TrEMBL record:
Protein name (record): TerB family tellurite resistance protein
The organism's taxonomic lineage, starting at the top: Bacteria, Pseudomonadati, Pseudomonadota, Alphaproteobacteria, Rhodobacterales
Native species: Paracoccus sediminis
A family per Pfam: TerB
Transmembrane region(s): none
Every Co-chaperone DjlA N-terminal domain range: 25-140
InterPro entries in the record: DjlA_N (IPR007791), TerB-like (IPR029024)
C-alpha cells in the first residue's frame, strides 16, 4: 500500500488527475509533517496537533487521524523537495482545499506555543507554491493564532 501510494502521488504524468480522497488527505498530512519537522524538533505536541487537525479537516476519529499521520510521516520522508512536493499537491487539489491546508499549516506552526521564523518562512513558501495569496495566508494565520 505504501509503495503504491508513493507511485500515485509522485507520478510524472503530463495531465495530472485529482488525487483520490484518502491519497489527498495523506499528501496534505505529509505537508503538515514536513512543516513540523522543519525546525528539527518534531514534538509530541506537534504530532497531537496534526492528529487534531486531520480529525477536524477530514472528520476522522482519533485513531484514524493518528494512522493517517503515521503514513504521512513515511510519505514525507520519501517525498521530493518541498518545492516539487507542494507544486504536485497544487496541481491535484482544489483551491479552496489549498486555503484550508494553509490554515492547517499555521495551526501546526503554533502547536508548540511559540513562533518560529523557519516555520513561518516555510509556510509563506508553501502558500505561494499552492497558489494561495499572501492576504489569504495572513487571514488563515490570524485565525490559527486566535484559536490557540
Amino acid at each position: 500500500m505504501f509503495r503504491n501510494l508513493l507511485n500515485r502521488l509522485f507520478t510524472e504524468e503530463p495531465a495530472l488527475t485529482p488525487l483520490a480522497t484518502e491519497d489527498a488527505e495523506i499528501a496534505i498530512a505529509a505537508l503538515l509533517v514536513r512543516l513540523a519537522r522543519a525546525d528539527d524538533h518534531y514534538s509530541a505536541a506537534e504530532r497531537r496537533r496534526i492528529d487534531q487537525v486531520l480529525a477536524r479537516l477530514h472528520d476522522l476519529d482519533p485513531a484514524e487521524a493518528s494512522e493517517r499521520r503515521s503514513v504521512a510521516e513515511m510519505i514525507e520522508a520519501e517525498a521530493p523537495d518541498t518545492v516539487r512536493f507542494t507544486r504536485l499537491i497544487k496541481d491535484r487539489v482544489l483551491l479552496e482545499d489549498r486555503v484550508a491546508i494553509i490554515r492547517a499549516l499555521w495551526d501546526i506552526a503554533y502547536a508548540d506555543e511559540r513562533r518560529n521564523a523557519h516555520e513561518e518562512t516555510m509556510i509563506r513558501l508553501m502558500s505561494g507554491l499552492l497558489g494561495v495569496t499572501d492576504r489569504d495566508s495572513a487571514f488563515q494565520r490570524q485565525r490559527a493564532a486566535a484559536a490557540r
